[in-house]
Amino acid sequence: MKILVINCGSSSIKYQLMDMEEERVLAEGLVEKIGESRSFLSHQTERSSVRKEVTSRDHREGLRLVIDHLLEKSAGVIKDPAEISAVGHRVVHGGDAFIESTLVDENVIGTIRRCATLAPLHNPPNLAGIEAAMDLLPDVPHVAVFDTSFHQTMPKEAYMYALPYELYEKYGIRRYGFHGTSHRYVALRAAQLLGRDLGDLKVITCHLGNGCSMTAVDRGKSVDTSMGFTPLEGLPMGTRCGDIDPSIVFFVAEKERLSLTEVSEILNRKSGLLGISGISNDVREIRGEAERGNDRARLALQVLAYKVRKYIGAYAAVLGGLDVIVFTAGIGENAEYVRWEVCRGLEFLGVRLDESRNKEPMKSKGVISAEGSQVKVLVVPTREELMIARDTLEIVRRQRTG
After folding, report:
1. In the listed set 85, 115, 146, which residue is the last one of a domain according to the structure?
2. Is the pTM of this model over 0.85?
3. Domain at 368, CATH number
4. Segments of 256-391 assigned E as strands
5. Catalytic residue positions, numbered
6. What distances in angstroms separate CA 156 from CA 117, 152, 224, 267, one per listed residue?
7. What is the pLDDT of residues 281-326, one digit of tens each?
8. 11 in a structural domain
9. Which of 164, 204, 235, 298 could form a disulfide with 290 if both were Cys (CB 3.0 to 4.6 A apart)?
10. Which segments in the chain show pLDDT lower than 70?
Protein backbone atom coordinates (compact mmCIF):
# COMPACT_ATOMS: atom_id res chain seq x y z
CA MET A 1 0.00 0.00 0.00
CA LYS A 2 1.31 3.44 -0.99
CA ILE A 3 0.43 6.40 1.22
CA LEU A 4 1.00 10.05 0.42
CA VAL A 5 1.85 12.16 3.48
CA ILE A 6 1.21 15.91 3.20
CA ASN A 7 2.26 18.71 5.53
CA CYS A 8 0.97 22.09 4.34
CA GLY A 9 2.31 25.37 5.67
CA SER A 10 1.06 28.83 4.81
CA SER A 11 3.21 28.97 1.66
CA SER A 12 4.61 25.44 1.39
CA ILE A 13 3.80 21.77 0.91
CA LYS A 14 6.14 19.14 2.34
CA TYR A 15 5.38 15.62 1.15
CA GLN A 16 6.46 11.98 1.11
CA LEU A 17 5.11 9.01 -0.80
CA MET A 18 5.73 5.84 1.20
CA ASP A 19 5.47 2.15 0.37
CA MET A 20 4.12 0.79 3.64
CA GLU A 21 5.05 -2.84 2.98
CA GLU A 22 8.66 -1.89 3.69
CA GLU A 23 8.01 1.59 5.17
CA ARG A 24 10.21 2.88 2.38
CA VAL A 25 10.19 6.47 1.07
CA LEU A 26 9.60 6.31 -2.69
CA ALA A 27 9.66 10.08 -3.22
CA GLU A 28 9.76 13.22 -1.13
CA GLY A 29 9.96 16.92 -1.66
CA LEU A 30 8.86 20.44 -1.01
CA VAL A 31 6.85 23.05 -2.86
CA GLU A 32 7.73 26.46 -1.45
CA LYS A 33 6.79 30.11 -1.86
CA ILE A 34 3.26 29.18 -2.89
CA GLY A 35 1.29 32.26 -3.93
CA GLU A 36 4.40 34.28 -4.75
CA SER A 37 5.59 35.35 -8.18
CA ARG A 38 8.30 32.68 -8.12
CA SER A 39 7.58 29.29 -6.54
CA PHE A 40 9.98 26.36 -6.33
CA LEU A 41 9.66 22.60 -6.26
CA SER A 42 12.29 20.20 -4.88
CA HIS A 43 11.56 16.54 -5.66
CA GLN A 44 13.72 13.55 -4.82
CA THR A 45 13.52 9.81 -5.46
CA GLU A 46 16.01 7.00 -5.03
CA ARG A 47 17.13 7.56 -8.63
CA SER A 48 17.01 11.31 -9.13
CA SER A 49 16.53 14.74 -7.63
CA VAL A 50 15.39 18.02 -9.11
CA ARG A 51 14.84 21.60 -7.96
CA LYS A 52 13.16 24.02 -10.31
CA GLU A 53 11.06 27.14 -10.53
CA VAL A 54 7.34 26.50 -10.93
CA THR A 55 4.03 28.35 -10.91
CA SER A 56 1.92 27.65 -7.84
CA ARG A 57 -0.72 30.23 -7.05
CA ASP A 58 -2.35 28.14 -4.32
CA HIS A 59 -2.13 24.79 -2.54
CA ARG A 60 -4.23 23.05 -5.17
CA GLU A 61 -1.77 23.98 -7.90
CA GLY A 62 1.10 22.96 -5.64
CA LEU A 63 -0.41 19.53 -5.03
CA ARG A 64 -1.12 19.13 -8.72
CA LEU A 65 2.60 19.64 -9.33
CA VAL A 66 3.44 17.05 -6.69
CA ILE A 67 1.17 14.45 -8.29
CA ASP A 68 2.52 15.24 -11.76
CA HIS A 69 6.08 14.63 -10.55
CA LEU A 70 5.09 11.36 -8.88
CA LEU A 71 3.67 10.32 -12.27
CA GLU A 72 6.47 11.76 -14.44
CA LYS A 73 7.36 9.24 -17.17
CA SER A 74 11.15 9.09 -16.87
CA ALA A 75 11.62 9.61 -13.14
CA GLY A 76 8.19 8.98 -11.61
CA VAL A 77 7.49 6.37 -8.95
CA ILE A 78 3.88 5.54 -9.85
CA LYS A 79 2.09 5.06 -13.16
CA ASP A 80 -1.42 5.96 -12.07
CA PRO A 81 -2.88 8.10 -9.26
CA ALA A 82 -4.94 5.05 -8.30
CA GLU A 83 -1.73 3.55 -6.89
CA ILE A 84 -2.03 6.05 -4.00
CA SER A 85 -4.14 4.14 -1.50
CA ALA A 86 -4.63 6.94 1.04
CA VAL A 87 -3.45 10.40 2.03
CA GLY A 88 -2.29 11.32 5.53
CA HIS A 89 -2.41 14.99 6.53
CA ARG A 90 -0.56 16.70 9.33
CA VAL A 91 -2.88 19.04 11.24
CA VAL A 92 -1.38 21.15 14.00
CA HIS A 93 -4.40 21.72 16.25
CA GLY A 94 -7.32 19.42 16.98
CA GLY A 95 -8.30 21.12 20.24
CA ASP A 96 -9.75 18.62 22.70
CA ALA A 97 -12.00 17.14 20.01
CA PHE A 98 -9.54 14.50 18.78
CA ILE A 99 -7.70 12.03 20.99
CA GLU A 100 -6.39 10.11 17.97
CA SER A 101 -5.97 10.42 14.22
CA THR A 102 -9.21 10.26 12.28
CA LEU A 103 -10.75 9.73 8.86
CA VAL A 104 -11.61 13.09 7.28
CA ASP A 105 -15.27 13.88 6.67
CA GLU A 106 -17.32 17.07 6.68
CA ASN A 107 -17.63 17.05 10.48
CA VAL A 108 -13.86 16.72 10.88
CA ILE A 109 -13.28 19.54 8.39
CA GLY A 110 -15.67 21.72 10.37
CA THR A 111 -13.88 21.00 13.64
CA ILE A 112 -10.46 21.74 12.12
CA ARG A 113 -11.87 25.03 10.84
CA ARG A 114 -13.20 25.92 14.31
CA CYS A 115 -9.81 25.08 15.85
CA ALA A 116 -8.23 27.68 13.56
CA THR A 117 -8.93 30.27 16.26
CA LEU A 118 -6.44 28.36 18.42
CA ALA A 119 -3.84 27.98 15.64
CA PRO A 120 -4.49 30.76 13.10
CA LEU A 121 -1.10 30.40 11.40
CA HIS A 122 -1.29 26.62 10.99
CA ASN A 123 -4.79 25.17 10.74
CA PRO A 124 -5.96 27.24 7.74
CA PRO A 125 -3.11 26.03 5.46
CA ASN A 126 -3.46 22.50 6.87
CA LEU A 127 -7.14 22.65 5.91
CA ALA A 128 -6.35 24.13 2.48
CA GLY A 129 -4.13 21.12 1.84
CA ILE A 130 -6.82 18.67 2.90
CA GLU A 131 -9.45 20.28 0.68
CA ALA A 132 -7.08 20.49 -2.29
CA ALA A 133 -6.00 16.86 -1.91
CA MET A 134 -9.59 15.64 -1.56
CA ASP A 135 -10.42 17.51 -4.76
CA LEU A 136 -7.47 16.04 -6.67
CA LEU A 137 -7.69 12.55 -5.16
CA PRO A 138 -11.40 12.14 -4.41
CA ASP A 139 -11.55 8.34 -4.48
CA VAL A 140 -9.12 7.58 -1.64
CA PRO A 141 -9.43 7.92 2.14
CA HIS A 142 -7.93 11.02 3.73
CA VAL A 143 -6.75 10.90 7.34
CA ALA A 144 -6.00 13.82 9.66
CA VAL A 145 -3.15 13.30 12.15
CA PHE A 146 -3.05 15.96 14.87
CA ASP A 147 0.01 17.35 16.65
CA THR A 148 -2.17 17.81 19.72
CA SER A 149 -3.88 14.40 19.90
CA PHE A 150 -1.05 12.53 21.66
CA HIS A 151 -1.28 14.97 24.56
CA GLN A 152 -5.01 14.50 25.14
CA THR A 153 -4.18 11.80 27.70
CA MET A 154 -2.86 14.47 30.08
CA PRO A 155 -4.79 14.60 33.37
CA LYS A 156 -6.84 17.70 34.01
CA GLU A 157 -4.47 18.97 36.69
CA ALA A 158 -1.69 18.98 34.08
CA TYR A 159 -3.55 20.85 31.35
CA MET A 160 -5.58 23.37 33.34
CA TYR A 161 -4.31 26.91 33.95
CA ALA A 162 -5.10 28.71 37.20
CA LEU A 163 -7.32 31.23 35.42
CA PRO A 164 -11.04 31.88 35.90
CA TYR A 165 -12.66 28.56 34.95
CA GLU A 166 -15.14 30.25 32.63
CA LEU A 167 -12.26 31.17 30.28
CA TYR A 168 -11.66 27.45 29.80
CA GLU A 169 -15.38 26.86 29.26
CA LYS A 170 -15.85 29.77 26.85
CA TYR A 171 -12.61 29.76 24.86
CA GLY A 172 -10.93 26.42 25.52
CA ILE A 173 -7.95 28.06 27.23
CA ARG A 174 -5.88 25.13 28.49
CA ARG A 175 -2.61 23.34 27.79
CA TYR A 176 -2.76 21.46 24.48
CA GLY A 177 0.86 20.70 23.66
CA PHE A 178 2.41 20.24 20.22
CA HIS A 179 5.00 18.09 18.41
CA GLY A 180 2.87 15.16 19.54
CA THR A 181 3.57 13.03 16.47
CA SER A 182 7.31 13.42 17.00
CA HIS A 183 7.15 12.68 20.74
CA ARG A 184 5.04 9.59 20.12
CA TYR A 185 7.36 8.26 17.41
CA VAL A 186 10.64 8.72 19.28
CA ALA A 187 9.27 7.26 22.52
CA LEU A 188 8.14 4.16 20.66
CA ARG A 189 11.37 3.90 18.67
CA ALA A 190 13.50 4.26 21.79
CA ALA A 191 11.65 1.37 23.42
CA GLN A 192 12.21 -0.73 20.29
CA LEU A 193 15.95 0.07 20.25
CA LEU A 194 16.20 -0.96 23.90
CA GLY A 195 14.20 -4.13 23.33
CA ARG A 196 11.61 -2.98 25.87
CA ASP A 197 7.85 -2.59 25.89
CA LEU A 198 6.92 1.11 25.92
CA GLY A 199 4.05 0.16 28.22
CA ASP A 200 6.62 -0.63 30.92
CA LEU A 201 8.69 2.56 30.65
CA LYS A 202 8.78 6.09 32.07
CA VAL A 203 10.23 8.26 29.29
CA ILE A 204 11.08 11.94 28.82
CA THR A 205 11.27 12.99 25.18
CA CYS A 206 13.16 16.16 24.22
CA HIS A 207 12.24 17.58 20.80
CA LEU A 208 14.89 20.28 20.40
CA GLY A 209 14.87 22.19 17.13
CA ASN A 210 13.96 25.73 16.14
CA GLY A 211 10.82 24.87 18.09
CA CYS A 212 11.49 23.02 21.34
CA SER A 213 9.22 20.94 23.54
CA MET A 214 9.45 18.12 26.06
CA THR A 215 6.97 15.45 27.08
CA ALA A 216 6.62 13.13 30.03
CA VAL A 217 5.49 9.75 28.65
CA ASP A 218 4.19 7.30 31.23
CA ARG A 219 3.81 3.79 29.82
CA GLY A 220 3.15 5.11 26.33
CA LYS A 221 0.85 7.99 27.29
CA SER A 222 1.61 11.70 27.44
CA VAL A 223 0.98 12.95 30.97
CA ASP A 224 2.56 16.41 30.67
CA THR A 225 4.23 18.52 28.00
CA SER A 226 6.05 21.84 27.95
CA MET A 227 4.21 23.70 25.17
CA GLY A 228 0.83 24.98 26.26
CA PHE A 229 -2.15 26.84 24.85
CA THR A 230 0.22 27.90 22.06
CA PRO A 231 3.72 26.78 21.05
CA LEU A 232 5.16 29.84 22.85
CA GLU A 233 5.20 28.26 26.31
CA GLY A 234 7.93 26.04 27.71
CA LEU A 235 11.57 25.90 26.69
CA PRO A 236 13.44 28.81 25.08
CA MET A 237 13.51 28.16 21.32
CA GLY A 238 15.09 29.60 18.22
CA THR A 239 13.11 32.84 18.38
CA ARG A 240 10.41 32.11 21.01
CA CYS A 241 10.89 33.07 24.63
CA GLY A 242 9.34 30.06 26.36
CA ASP A 243 8.33 30.43 30.02
CA ILE A 244 8.33 34.00 31.33
CA ASP A 245 6.52 35.97 34.02
CA PRO A 246 3.25 37.08 32.29
CA SER A 247 3.62 40.54 33.81
CA ILE A 248 6.60 41.14 31.52
CA VAL A 249 4.12 41.54 28.64
CA PHE A 250 2.43 44.51 30.28
CA PHE A 251 5.67 45.98 31.63
CA VAL A 252 7.34 45.97 28.18
CA ALA A 253 4.19 47.28 26.49
CA GLU A 254 4.09 50.23 28.87
CA LYS A 255 7.80 51.03 28.95
CA GLU A 256 8.36 50.66 25.19
CA ARG A 257 4.93 52.10 24.25
CA LEU A 258 4.08 49.00 22.23
CA SER A 259 0.79 47.38 21.29
CA LEU A 260 0.09 43.81 22.42
CA THR A 261 0.59 42.72 18.81
CA GLU A 262 4.05 44.28 18.82
CA VAL A 263 4.91 42.59 22.12
CA SER A 264 3.72 39.27 20.67
CA GLU A 265 6.11 39.81 17.76
CA ILE A 266 8.99 40.23 20.23
CA LEU A 267 8.08 37.11 22.20
CA ASN A 268 7.57 34.91 19.13
CA ARG A 269 10.14 36.17 16.63
CA LYS A 270 12.84 38.16 18.45
CA SER A 271 13.41 36.20 21.64
CA GLY A 272 14.78 32.77 22.53
CA LEU A 273 18.30 31.91 21.39
CA LEU A 274 18.25 34.81 18.95
CA GLY A 275 17.21 37.26 21.63
CA ILE A 276 19.83 36.22 24.17
CA SER A 277 22.73 35.75 21.75
CA GLY A 278 21.95 38.68 19.48
CA ILE A 279 23.46 36.56 16.71
CA SER A 280 21.15 33.92 15.31
CA ASN A 281 18.49 31.35 16.05
CA ASP A 282 20.80 28.67 14.61
CA VAL A 283 22.64 26.73 17.31
CA ARG A 284 25.53 25.99 14.94
CA GLU A 285 26.23 29.69 14.47
CA ILE A 286 25.77 30.39 18.17
CA ARG A 287 28.15 27.57 19.06
CA GLY A 288 30.78 28.96 16.71
CA GLU A 289 30.56 32.38 18.33
CA ALA A 290 30.67 30.84 21.81
CA GLU A 291 33.90 29.04 20.91
CA ARG A 292 35.33 32.40 19.80
CA GLY A 293 34.64 33.82 23.24
CA ASN A 294 31.25 35.50 22.77
CA ASP A 295 29.73 35.53 26.26
CA ARG A 296 26.15 36.09 25.09
CA ALA A 297 26.39 33.18 22.68
CA ARG A 298 27.67 30.96 25.49
CA LEU A 299 24.88 32.20 27.75
CA ALA A 300 22.20 31.34 25.18
CA LEU A 301 23.38 27.73 25.06
CA GLN A 302 23.63 27.56 28.85
CA VAL A 303 20.08 28.87 29.26
CA LEU A 304 18.72 26.26 26.84
CA ALA A 305 20.58 23.40 28.53
CA TYR A 306 19.57 24.62 32.00
CA LYS A 307 15.86 24.80 31.10
CA VAL A 308 15.90 21.33 29.51
CA ARG A 309 17.63 19.94 32.62
CA LYS A 310 15.09 21.71 34.82
CA TYR A 311 12.17 20.16 32.93
CA ILE A 312 13.77 16.72 33.16
CA GLY A 313 13.86 17.09 36.93
CA ALA A 314 10.23 18.21 37.02
CA TYR A 315 9.04 15.46 34.72
CA ALA A 316 10.92 12.78 36.64
CA ALA A 317 8.84 13.90 39.62
CA VAL A 318 5.64 13.83 37.54
CA LEU A 319 6.45 10.30 36.34
CA GLY A 320 7.52 9.09 39.76
CA GLY A 321 10.77 7.78 38.33
CA LEU A 322 12.66 7.70 35.06
CA ASP A 323 13.86 4.97 32.71
CA VAL A 324 14.71 6.74 29.44
CA ILE A 325 15.59 10.20 28.09
CA VAL A 326 15.31 10.71 24.33
CA PHE A 327 16.80 13.58 22.31
CA THR A 328 15.46 14.33 18.84
CA ALA A 329 15.05 17.05 16.14
CA GLY A 330 17.77 19.33 14.76
CA ILE A 331 19.48 20.32 18.02
CA GLY A 332 18.67 17.12 19.87
CA GLU A 333 20.06 14.93 17.10
CA ASN A 334 23.15 16.95 16.18
CA ALA A 335 24.37 19.15 19.07
CA GLU A 336 26.35 16.79 21.29
CA TYR A 337 27.52 19.71 23.48
CA VAL A 338 23.90 20.61 24.29
CA ARG A 339 23.13 16.99 25.22
CA TRP A 340 26.25 16.87 27.41
CA GLU A 341 25.35 20.11 29.20
CA VAL A 342 21.77 18.93 29.74
CA CYS A 343 22.81 15.63 31.30
CA ARG A 344 25.71 17.02 33.35
CA GLY A 345 24.36 17.23 36.88
CA LEU A 346 21.64 14.61 36.45
CA GLU A 347 23.73 11.87 38.00
CA PHE A 348 21.47 11.94 41.07
CA LEU A 349 18.68 10.60 38.82
CA GLY A 350 20.90 7.80 37.56
CA VAL A 351 21.98 9.51 34.33
CA ARG A 352 25.52 8.89 33.08
CA LEU A 353 26.61 9.75 29.55
CA ASP A 354 29.37 8.04 27.58
CA GLU A 355 31.42 10.84 26.00
CA SER A 356 32.46 8.89 22.89
CA ARG A 357 28.95 7.57 22.29
CA ASN A 358 27.54 11.06 22.69
CA LYS A 359 29.83 12.32 19.92
CA GLU A 360 28.85 9.52 17.50
CA PRO A 361 25.48 8.18 18.69
CA MET A 362 24.62 6.14 15.60
CA LYS A 363 27.61 3.85 16.21
CA SER A 364 25.79 2.57 19.29
CA LYS A 365 22.28 2.50 17.77
CA GLY A 366 21.50 5.87 19.32
CA VAL A 367 22.31 4.88 22.89
CA ILE A 368 24.61 7.53 24.40
CA SER A 369 24.40 6.58 28.07
CA ALA A 370 27.30 4.76 29.68
CA GLU A 371 27.21 1.06 30.46
CA GLY A 372 25.51 0.62 33.80
CA SER A 373 23.65 3.95 33.61
CA GLN A 374 20.40 3.50 35.50
CA VAL A 375 18.63 5.82 33.04
CA LYS A 376 19.14 5.07 29.37
CA VAL A 377 19.77 8.12 27.16
CA LEU A 378 19.20 7.90 23.41
CA VAL A 379 19.38 10.02 20.28
CA VAL A 380 16.51 9.06 17.96
CA PRO A 381 15.99 10.84 14.62
CA THR A 382 12.36 11.82 14.40
CA ARG A 383 10.20 10.55 11.52
CA GLU A 384 6.89 12.34 11.84
CA GLU A 385 5.93 11.46 8.26
CA LEU A 386 6.31 7.76 9.01
CA MET A 387 4.11 8.10 12.09
CA ILE A 388 1.47 9.88 9.99
CA ALA A 389 1.67 7.13 7.35
CA ARG A 390 1.33 4.40 10.00
CA ASP A 391 -1.74 6.05 11.50
CA THR A 392 -3.24 6.46 8.05
CA LEU A 393 -2.62 2.80 7.23
CA GLU A 394 -4.18 1.65 10.49
CA ILE A 395 -7.30 3.75 10.03
CA VAL A 396 -7.76 2.66 6.41
CA ARG A 397 -7.46 -1.00 7.41
CA ARG A 398 -9.89 -0.44 10.25
CA GLN A 399 -12.33 1.16 7.81
CA ARG A 400 -12.06 -1.76 5.38
CA THR A 401 -12.62 -4.43 8.03
CA GLY A 402 -15.40 -2.25 9.41
Report:
1. 146
2. yes
3. 3.30.420.40
4. 324-328, 376-379
5. 147
6. 22, 10, 10, 27
7. 999 999 999 999 999 999 999 999 999 999 999 999 999 999 999 9
8. yes
9. 298
10. 402
